[in-house]
Structure formats: C-alpha cells, structure tokens
Amino acid sequence: MTKRAAGNALLTSLRIGICLFVLSVSLFAQNRNPIILIPGLTGSELKHKVTGEKVWFKALKPKSEDLRLPISTSIDKMHDDLIPGDIIREVKIGILPATDVYGGFIRAMEMRAGYHEESWTNPSDDGDRDAIYVFAYDWRLDNVENAQRLVRDVEALKRKLKRPDLKFDIVAHSMGGIISRYAAMYGDAELPTGNRKPVPTWAGAKLFDKVILLGTPNEGAVSSLGSMLNGYSVGGLRIDLPFIQDSSKFTVFTIPSAYQLLPAPGTFRAFDEKLKPISIDLYDPKMWSKYGWNVIEDDDFNGQFDLAEQKIATAFFTAALDRAKRLHEALAASNGKAEGVLIYLVGSDCKTALDGVVLYQDGKKWKTLVRPKGFTRADGSRVTDDELKNVMQSAGDGVVTQRSLEAVTQSQSAKVASILKSQPVKLVCEDHNKLAANARIQDYVIRVLEGKESTIGN
What we know:
Largest sheet: 7 strands, parallel
CATH superfamily: Alpha/Beta hydrolase fold, catalytic domain
Oligomer: single chain
CATH class: Alpha Beta
Radius of gyration: 24 Å
C-alpha cells in the first residue's frame, strides 16, 4: 500500500470513528424522560432530623436507637424524629466485600445509557432530560402517604425546571412499586373511606410515562406474615436488603408498611396439618387471636409499650389491617388498562419463594410454619420437608412469587382484568435482592426507556 493510500485509509477510519462518536452522543442526547429510582423496603437511609446521625442502615443497632414508630389510629400520620437520607447504594460490613444495593444500577444508567444524577432541591439546567432522581423515603410509613409525597415532589420539581409538560419514567424495586402504582392510579388522593369503592383516576398519567417494576409484590408477600410473627431478621423478610440489623416483632408491629405487604385479600394460601387448604381472612383481627399471631396478646407486650400505647394498641392494630386491606383493594381496582401509563414487570421465576403457610396444633397451641420444616401430626404421622415445600413454595425470586409479581390471584379474586398484563413480563433468573444489580435487567430497562422494547397497545 502506498503512503497516499495508507493516509486515505487512516483518514477514512478517523471519519468513521468521528461519525460513530457523534452518533453515540446523539443517541444519548435524545432528551429522554428523567428517571426516578424508587427503592423498596429498607432501601433508604434513615437519619435523625436534628442530629443528622444515621440510624439505618447500621450493621449493629445500639439500644438507644429504635426504628419503632409511635402508634396511632391515624395510620397515615405516624411519625417520629427519623427522616430519609439517601438511598442505600451499597452495604459494607467490617472486612466483608461491599454488597451492591442500588449504586450499581445508577452507575449502569450513567455509563451505559448516558444519564446523569440530579438533585431534587437544586436541579441543573439539564435536569429535565436524561437525568436520574433517587426517591429516598421513610419505608416504615404508610405507602399511600409516601405515594402522595412522590407526586408532590414531582410537581414541585417540574415547577423548578419550568417544565409543566414534563413526564418522568419510574424504575421501582419491590415495595417501591406499590408506591409507584398508587401514585400513577390516584395521584395524591387519599384512600376512599367507608363503603365507597376505589375508582382509579390515573391522575399520575400527567406526571409519569413508563413505570418499570422490579420484583414488586403486587399482591403481597407471605413472608411479611413471618416478619410480623418473628421480626425482620436474617432469614426472615428481606424484601430488599441483606441486613443484619434485626428488628423485633414489637418494632414491626408499629410499622404500617409491614401490614401493607401482607397478602392481598383473597390471595393468602394456608394449609392444615393434612396439607389441605383452609380459608383465613388475614384482615380480621379475630383470626390473629385465634392462631396466636396477635402481638398484643404476647406475654412481653406490656413490657415493650407504655400505658398510653397499650390502651390504643387494639384500635391501632385494627386500623392498620383495615387500611392495608383498602390499599390492596384500591390497587386491584381497574378496567384492565393502565390509562396513559405503560407498566412493565420484571422479575424471576427460577428461585422458590414462600407462597403459603401450614398451621397445626401442638397440644392446645397453634403452630404456624413460615418455612418448610417437617413436623409430626396429631396422629403420629410425619410430614417431611419436601412435602411442605410442595405446598408452601412456588416459583419466584426467592422472596416474591411470580404469582404475586403478576397479581394473578388478586385480579381473579377482585373479578377484574389486571392492568399488570398490559405490557410484556420480563423474567430473568435472579435473586430478589440482586434484581437492580443484574446486567441483563439493566440492559432491558435501558431498552424500555429508549423505546426499543415491544409495547402492547394501551
């Protein structure tokens, strides 16, 4: 090859390289909707509003720090001195390697898709395009209250950006999807009371375009009952974070969101000692007393709560169950269409997840199995671990079943078409806690946000 030919070839290569670079920049500069990343239960830091000291997450919880909320019959107005800080990006415990929680997802959106992180309070001039906003929230509180805060924060941000027509895309993990769905369906409206049936207004359609739900327990999680019986702990309910800062059942008793993660009405699966289905209304306080689930009746309850709290404990418990039931009913109410909003489901079907409990009597006391551990029936016959697994577990991501992700039973029970069938469901083999960190899921999310995934007409 002559020097001239070589020079022309080099020039051509440079031109191609420049064109590819310009093309890649142009692809990143399409003024895509800003993203809101919403974590799930335990996925946001909590700090003291006066001292700024971080209370959650810490590997070891000092006795002076308490995640317990002051109980009240006004479930949507239960607050203490803790406020949300940042989302939890990673967890580092001692000499162990750091565990990615949501930081890796943000980096993937930045490095592989050209987004940039922005501030809610002080957005830049580019805050209305190709931006990521993280929505940290107090995950202990009522989900409707947090949905209302999301709507109001988005409306305030639009005013700051001077973009009244701006829409946002949401990527929500686990319980964050419950918040997102309510905000899309009802905006900042309160739950209906009395005998009024919920009717979705889709007020959130003016704010949101695409809503991507990662491992959301759309019809609740059976493991939430386990957390109310045994507390949040390693091996218990770990909706988002593999944490070791345990919380007792007395703390969980005061947390409204725990009630709102219980299986939706008509979806709870329970079996007797012969592994035959039995019908239990989880939202009837009498059932909690019958089966020994009611924490108020625990011998240690009075030692955990002061006299004023003891007096309203039953009223609080009843109100918390009732509000959780009404939230599920509001989310199930639909005509089968997500009006003005595209909702995508992402989850897993290769990890078994708790999908039912087994109840049997040991003497005069009821025993509730929330994990498949063999036992001996009253007639002396043995029930094996494998027999229990067959009825207590089903396909999912290890925490949330595929059934709950797609709200299959809830829609059937409510006798409505599910809005969650309005778009294709993406299943990737992954653990619940690692969904946001999975590269295949990140690639899928990017394609959805860029409009490169097939869409069913809405």
